[in-house]
């Protein structure tokens, strides 16, 4: 892979915005800050946040075994994924490959950035990438392939072989979305970043960390890739309150781990109980914090659950997901209420 050839020309030549807090980077020293036209009156958030989120990155780097310069943080995964499109995909020329049924945001971001989205379905029998077909779909304008593992909404992880094949035979970026990796028995690919310069991994604070409300997404890649993404990210993309909350949760890992364990145990219980419901024809194995089920009539069952005050996700319109509902694992009480409701339908 030649990174220089992948980057859009306008990005290569542009001058990034230099914020006051970018020019004066020392956050630890006591200084009188008269450089950013802020209010001088302390209220906890009167100062602009650290544009490089150094404290959060330091903790993440330690815990995940990467360097801080291999991390980009964004306002949700949405933002870091959008930054990838803007750095690497020339509008109305380049294309990306996505593998439905999968997370809808990749396709939305492709459309938003005027980038062609080439869809190659997962295999119908086991929801794995069809690597041969994918490799044939690549052309000189293909910049990224999006892999979601564990995959949303199917819940399975992709095989190691197919991921390695795509990384090795593709000259663009393989973007591996690990939003649900903490619920999986499979290891994260973070340790492989050194080996594969065209691998980009995204994770999030929204799922296992329980912080969907602070909007914080994480992108891990080579220091070279991170430095181009940094060049175009909005300077103060993560506010102070979000950074503080992330720090708090990262220093309290036991709580997070306990909750992951509980969710996994509840998933097992739920999978068993779901099979006792007559109109559920199939439950799919899940490495995430949700379960995909196939029912007799997804539209009807979705509405019946709504009437009982339970909202699930109808995935019936996704390819290979006819009559499928996706159900997030809730608290033990919520899960019991779900089962009770299903059994009365
Ligand atoms: C939930 C989810 C995310 C997280 O998105 P955020 O913007 O970080 O909340 C990312 N990828 C997938 C596949 C998801 O399901």
From TrEMBL:
One of its GO terms (molecular function) is pyridoxal phosphate binding. The keyword Oxidoreductase does not apply. It comes from the Bacteria. One of its GO terms (biological process) is L-histidine biosynthetic process. Gene3D superfamilies: Aspartate Aminotransferase, domain 1, Type I PLP-dependent aspartate aminotransferase-like (Major domain). It is an enzyme of class 2 (transferase). Keywords: Amino-acid biosynthesis, Aminotransferase, Histidine biosynthesis, Pyridoxal phosphate, Transferase. It catalyses: L-histidinol phosphate + 2-oxoglutarate = 3-(imidazol-4-yl)-2-oxopropyl phosphate + L-glutamate. Pathway: Amino-acid biosynthesis; L-histidine biosynthesis; L-histidine from 5-phospho-alpha-D-ribose 1-diphosphate: step 7/9; Lipid metabolism. Its cofactor is pyridoxal 5'-phosphate. Its EC number is 2.6.1.9. SUPFAM superfamilies: PLP-dependent transferases. InterPro entries: Aminotrans_II_pyridoxalP_BS, Aminotransferase_I/II_large, HisP_aminotrans, PyrdxlP-dep_Trfase, PyrdxlP-dep_Trfase_major, PyrdxlP-dep_Trfase_small. The modification N6-(pyridoxal phosphate)lysine is found at residue 207. NCBIfam families: hisC (TIGR01141). Homodimer. Belongs to the class-II pyridoxal-phosphate-dependent aminotransferase family. Histidinol-phosphate aminotransferase subfamily. This is Histidinol-phosphate aminotransferase. It comes from Flavobacterium cauense R2A-7.
């Amino acid at each position: 892979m030649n990174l220089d050839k992948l980057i859009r020309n306008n990005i290569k030549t542009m001058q990034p915005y230099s914020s006051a807090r970018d020019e004066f980077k020392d956050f630890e020293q006591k200084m009188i800050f008269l450089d950013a036209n802020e209010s001088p009156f302390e209220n906890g958030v009167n100062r602009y946040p650290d544009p490089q989120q150094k404290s959060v990155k330091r903790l993440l780097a330690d815990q995940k075994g990467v360097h801080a310069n291999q991390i980009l943080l964004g306002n949700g995964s949405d933002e870091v994924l959008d930054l990838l499109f803007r750095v690497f995909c020339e509008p109305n020329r380049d294309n990306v490959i996505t593998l439905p049924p999968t997370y809808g945001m990749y396709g939305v971001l492709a459309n938003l950035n005027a980038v062609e989205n080439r869809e190659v379905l997962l295999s119908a029998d086991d929801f794995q990438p069809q690597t041969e077909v994918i490799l044939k779909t690549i052309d000189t304008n293909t910049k990224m392939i999006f892999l979601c593992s564990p995959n949303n909404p199917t819940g399975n992880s992709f095989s190691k072989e197919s991921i390695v094949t795509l990384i090795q035979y593709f000259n663009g970026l393989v973007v591996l979305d690990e939003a649900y990796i903490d619920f999986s028995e499979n290891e994260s690919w973070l340790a492989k970043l050194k080996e594969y310069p065209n691998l980009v991994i995204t994770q999030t604070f929204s799922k296992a960390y329980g912080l969907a409300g602070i909007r914080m997404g994480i992108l891990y890649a080579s220091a070279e890739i991170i430095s181009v993404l940094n060049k175009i990210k909005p300077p103060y993309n993560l506010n102070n309150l979000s950074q503080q909350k992330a720090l708090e949760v990262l220093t309290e890992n036991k709580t997070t781990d306990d909750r992951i364990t509980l969710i996994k145990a509840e998933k097992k219980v739920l999978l068993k109980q779901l099979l006792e419901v007559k109109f559920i024809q199939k439950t799919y194995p899940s490495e995430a914090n949700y379960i995909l089920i196939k029912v007799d009539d997804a539209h009807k069952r979705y509405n019946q659950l709504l009437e009982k005050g339970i909202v699930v996700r109808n995935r019936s319109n996704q390819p290979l997901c006819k009559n499928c509902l996706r159900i997030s694992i809730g608290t033990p009480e919520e899960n019991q209420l779900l089962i009770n409701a299903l059994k009365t339908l």
